From TrEMBL:
The protein's name in its UniProt record: Pyridoxal phosphate-dependent aminotransferase EpsN
Gene3D superfamilies documented for this protein: Aspartate Aminotransferase, domain 1 (3.90.1150.10), Type I PLP-dependent aspartate aminotransferase-like (Major domain) (3.40.640.10)
GO function term, MF aspect, one: transaminase activity
Classification via InterPro entries: DegT/StrS_aminotransferase, PyrdxlP-dep_Trfase, PyrdxlP-dep_Trfase_major, PyrdxlP-dep_Trfase_small
CDD domains the UniProt entry points to: AHBA_syn
Keyword list, A-Z: Aminotransferase, Pyridoxal phosphate, Transferase
Organism per entry: Neobacillus kokaensis
Gene this chain is encoded by: epsN
Amino acid sequence: MPQTTVEKRILLSPPHMSGREMHYINEAIETNWIAPLGPNVDAFESDLAELTGINGAVAVSSGTAAIHLALLLLGVKKGDLVFCSSLTFVASANPILYQGAEPVFIDSEPETWNMSPSALECAFLDASAAGRLPKAVIIVNLYGQSARMEELVSICNQYNVPIIEDAAESLGALYKGKASGTFGEFGIYSFNGNKIITTSGGGMLISNNVEALNKARFLATQAKDLAPYYQHSKLGFNYRMSNILAGIGRGQLKVLDERVMARRTIFNRYQEELADISAISFMPEMPQTFSNRWLTALTIHEETAGLTAAKVLEVLESENIEARHVWKPLHLQPLFEQCKYYLHNGNENISEKLFQTGICLPSGSNMTRDDQMRVIQCIRNSLGTG
Ligand SMILES: *Cc1c(COP(=O)(O)O)cnc(C)c1O
């Protein structure tokens, strides 16, 4: 039957305000704290540090800026190697190029979709044999699922190489009861508009090393020396978060737990309603971890389904539903085509397989049950199991 009406668009992961943001924004306006820095920034930093159980946090203009600062603090410079997960958003690796350093990409493993310890080990063996160890390893927690931190930390410790945990997507997730993002020398979160909580745009650098965080504050405010005039001895950046946006962040942080539970409920409903379709496999949640299920991700078995993941996305788009491919691995990006890539178990290409078969479904914490049922029905129709 030809479709006559276009239904309202269902978005992948739209912002979801708590209603408490205006209080802090108004306070900033009434006290005229319309600047980068101010009381909302200080409170947002200390609230987030307390929530994640870490010594300190620095609020910045984006998650990307936080990764860049972490690399600067670890002394990453031109010609250095940095290992990085391949299956991730480009922002995980762009700051490596900002520093003129060389990314080496590491494959995923099937149980977490995150960095493969066996691939990481291979990369370290080669780097060690060549006498050129990386300066840092960037480990990403995809779609709110923690990587195999214990194994990965132990390999990095063996070579004495620090970790930057890219927890942009995994705020509120746990690994063995400990907050995702707190496992490396530095961790970063993002508050971009599509993330689990948002400041419209923003990020946070966290660490137990308070001295390093003070250096980050210095670098993020144009590296202004302690002098009675504008004096600069180091190259700095304008990376701090504004006091108004931090007010939004304070209002959002208060409902983080609710947001995580809402996303998990959405995931569970997809899983229950699509359980009978054998061509679909959901992204696993590794035992002893707690995912925030930022986005519900699944793979489609092409032979069983009789169609590709790309085709399912086309059908969803035709029904005005925003769904996406899983991240295109960075080693496949034209930007990074010169870079090395290490496979899981030496010969399994997990990230490419997940890219070919994986899709992310609308997962906003404010999505209604009716809207979700529309997505579910559309998937069932596309797979001929309506
Ligand atoms: C969103 C995201 C970032 C970047 O955060 P911004 O705040 O958008 O700069 C980095 N890494 C991953 C994995 C992300 O999803």
